[in-house]
Amino acid sequence: MTRAVVVHHTGGPDVLTVEDWPLASPGPGQVALRQTAIGLNFIDTYQRSGLYPVQTPFVAGSEGAGIITALGDGVTGLKVGDRVAYQGQLGAYADERIAAADKLVPIPDGISDQAAAAIMLKGLTAYYLLFKTWPVAKDETILWHAAAGGTGLIATQWAKSLGATVIGTAGSDDKVALAKAHGCDHVINYNTEDFAARTRELTGGRGVYVVYDGVGKSTFEKSLDCLRPRGLMVTFGNASGVVSIPDITVLSRKGSLYVTRPTSAHYFQTRDELLEGASKLFAAVQSGAVKVEIGRTFPLSEAANAHRALEGRETTGSVVLLP
């Protein structure tokens, strides 16, 4: 048995219950992990609420770091005692867990377990968005919504290191200041300014090459007005609700725009793709191009409070749960 945070039925943060959960031995291709840090992400709240359906009951969470304590048959390239991190494997909110070995990434020396847990999902998201979805080039201007959030702080620093001009948005003066300190050339407080008009002003009326938006419904339509002709709208999250386009001709009217809704599952379909992304992410952290910002930590037993803080926009940077 292991202590875990379990969802028996979907709903608000109160449905997260701390209890003993069965822990099997690792099967073929699996390892047992003693977890040392667990990342908190909006996808955790989507699965808990039922927006992203998951068969109940389930152990919440999909990102973490820990130490391998046992190997199943057929596992190669890893050994007991290795520090590893992962993302995209449901069952993270636990002291111990079983994980698929081919989804684990060794943590390099010089990167702490907390830092690894804080950046695996968010950092790999930033990687595929900046390098694959729209390969950001030097001197391009981009717009990143929620620039003071966990993914935003990683991505804006990384984009700046690539030579881009980075415009960010944030919802308070404190968050504006934090985003400016992490790579943004300009930050717009979307609660006090019209971010579309301000973006047009900052770009001399031309618009940006790409908008990266993890906020969703509340920012989507105005974001289209921030793009130059044939620009790309990347909607990768639903923090304010799911986006819909009832009239797709809006894309032609606003400049023959492109829209995509990417997910990590389609960018990391092979282990080689995962290792390539993780290698670039860890190298960016080790070089200092990306500084990891852990805004808050919570004991694992307070996962419900962590969800309330995340959904209430009370957090900045990454949030980590500690077993």
From TrEMBL:
Enoyl reductase (ER) domain residues: 11-321
Superkingdom of origin organism: Bacteria
One example GO MF annotation: mRNA 3'-UTR AU-rich region binding
SUPFAM superfamilies, sorted: GroES-like (SSF50129), NAD(P)-binding Rossmann-fold domains (SSF51735)
Alphabetic keyword roster: NADP, Oxidoreductase
CDD domains with a match to the protein in the record: QOR2
Keyword Ligase: no
Keyword Electron transport attributed: no
A cellular component annotation (GO) from this entry: cytosol
InterPro entries noted in UniProt: ADH-like_C, ADH-like_N, ER, GroES-like_sf, NAD(P)-bd_dom_sf, QOR-like, Quin_OxRdtase/zeta-crystal_CS
PANTHER family linked: QUINONE OXIDOREDUCTASE PIG3-RELATED, QUINONE OXIDOREDUCTASE-RELATED
Protein name: NADPH2:quinone reductase
Organism: Devosia psychrophila
